[in-house]
Amino acid sequence: MIVRPNPNQENEHELALPTPKMQSHMPHLRKVKGSSQLIVNDEPFLMLAAELHNSSLSSAEYMRTVWPNMKAMNINTLLGSVTWEMIEPEEGKFDFAELDEVIGDARRHDLHLVLLWFGSFKNALSTYTPGWMRKDVKRFPRVHVSEAGAVVRTEELVSPFNQRAWEADAKAFGKLMAHLKEIDEEHSTVLMIQVENETGLLGDSRDRSRIANELFEKPVPQALLQHLQQSSENNLHPKFLQRFPLVKSLRAGEATWADAFGRGPAAEEMFMADAFSKYISKVAESGKKEYPIPFYTNVWLNVEDDGSNLDTDLPVVVGGGGRPGVYPSGGPCPHTLDVWKYNTAPHLDFISPDLYFHDYESVCIDYKHAGQPLFIPEQRRDEKGARRTWLAYGTYGALGCSPFGIDSELASEAAITRHYGLLASVSDIVLKKQATNPEDVMGFFFDELHEDPKPRLWVRRFGNFEITIDRAFVFGKEGPGAGLIIHLGEGKFLLVGWGFNFLVKSVNPKATFASILHAEERVVSKDEDGQVVLKRGRVLNGDEHRHGEFLMMANEDPDYGGFPIAVTPGCRTMICELEVYDVEEDKDDY
Predict the structure, then answer these.
(1) Distance (Å, whole) CA 452 – CA 94
(2) Are 387 and 403 in contact (CB under 8 A)?
(3) Which residues form the DUF5597 domain (predicted)?
(4) Final residue of a structural domain among 425, 451, 466
(5) CA 117 to CA 82: how far, in whole Å?
(6) Which domain range does residue 508 map to?
(7) Taking the C-alpha atoms of 358, 359, 363 and 365 in order, what is their torsion angle to the nearest 10 degrees?
(8) Is 25 domain-assigned?
(9) Among 429, 472, 477, 492, which residue's beta carbon has the most beta carbons within 10 A?
(10) Is residue 465 domain-shared with residue 372, that is, in the same domain?
C-alpha cells in the first residue's frame, strides 16, 4: 500500500493506523431469520451509512477535509465511487495510488467504506469508462435508440451484447478486487462493493442496433424461461406475476420475447434486463474470484402506471417515469427482479433500491422479497429521509441506509446526525433482535402535518398485547416523529425516538384491563470495556404516562398551543424502557 504524506494536514501524524488483527476474516453475509446480517471482524455490524458525491473519492486531499465531519455525523460507513477511467487511464496500466491513500485515511478515522464500481454503466450511461474505450466504437460498439419513431441515434452507452466490453470491464474489476484483497483483507475497511450503478437504457425500451434486433427475434433462453416456470409463486416477485401471468404456460425453447412478455415495451424491457444482468454477472464473477466480499447492484426505480408507489406530489417523471426508457429499461425493477436474480446468482449477493421519491415502505417490501437482504444505497438526506431510516432498520432489518451527497452537509446541520447518534446507542440490541426475533422490532415515522395529511397509526401485535404508535399528543400543532420499539419479552418494551405516543391494548379475550405498569428513562453510558450500556434514569410513572393510558416520547420542543400547564414532558433521553400488563377478573372481583 502506498500512503503519501499530506503536508496540508498538521495533525495527521496523530492518527496512527490501527494494528491489524492476527486473525483475518473478510466481511461476509450471515443468514439470519428471514434475511441476512453483515459480519465484520466476526461480529454483526449495522451500517450507519451515507453516500458521498460521485467525485469525492477521486481525491485523498479533498477527503481529508471530509473525514472529521463524517465522524461528527455519527456515520460509521461511507459509500463512494471508484471509476474505471481513474484506475485504468491507459489500457492495461493500472493505478491505485489515490485509492490507497483514501482507504488508509478512512482506516485512520475508524470509518468503513462501501466502494461503488463505476465501470461500464452509471445511471444508464457509460461516461465513467476510460477514454480509450469510449473512442473505440469498433471494439466496443454503442447502443442505438429510436425514441418516439425518430431516426436511430447513437447513445453514450456501451452495448451489453458485446463480449469484448464485458471482458475489459471484468478484467479491470478483477484487478481492483485483487488489489483490495492485498491491502485490506487484514483490516476490513472496505465492507461491500456495488457493481455498476443504476444500469439500464434511457431513451428507448431496447437497443435498436443490428445485433440487438437479431437477438430479439430469437427465443427466450431456455434455462431462464424454465426457471421462471418452475419457481414457486412464493419465490417469484408479486409484481412479475401480476404483469406476466401467462409465462408458465409457454413452451421453453420456442417462445420469443414477444410471446413470453407481450409485444411492445414490456417484452423489450425484459430482453434488456436479460442482457444487462448477464453482463454485470460476468463483471461481478471476475471480482468474486479475487476477493469475495458482499457484492450488490442498485436500481433506478420505475413508477407504477397509477403512481401508487410514489411518495411525492412532484411530476411522475421526477420519480423515474412510468415507461421503460423514461426510467432505465432493463434495470432490476421489481417486475424484472427475478430475471436479474437468476442471471447474477451467485456473483451478486443482493439487489438494492435507490429510494428518493417512492413510497418507502412498499419499496422495502419489494426488495426484501424472498429473504433478500435490504440495503438502501441512495436516499434523501433531509429530515424527511432521515425519519424513514427507522422503518428500514427496525421493521425491515436493513443492513444500512445511505443518504446521498452527505459531504456537502455540515454535521451541525445534517438531519442524520441526531438520528444516527440515537440509533447507534441501541444498535447492539437491534442487531441481536434482527438475528433471532426480527418480529420483535417495529420502526415508524411521522412527517410534518402538511407533508402527511392522512392520520397514520402504526399497529403491531407483540405476544398478548397490541401496541399502537400514534403521533405525539400536544395541545398545539402536532410535530413530526420517528423511532422504533423493541419487544424485550414478558410485556417489556424499549422505546427509542421522539414525537410519538405508545398505547397498549390486550388481545387476551379474558383480559378486562390493560395499562402501562412501569416506565423508566434509559441513559446512554459506557462500561469499563468501552461498550455502550443503557443505565437507569428517571422513573416515568403516574402523571408522566397519564396513569397508564399512554407514554409520550415528546419532541424536543413540543407545542403546547398556549395551554398554561406543561403536561406530559416525555422522555428526555429519547430512550425509555417500560412494562405493560393486563388483568383477568372474575365476577367476584367486580
Answers:
(1) 51
(2) no
(3) 417-551
(4) 425
(5) 5
(6) 443-589
(7) -170
(8) no
(9) 472
(10) no
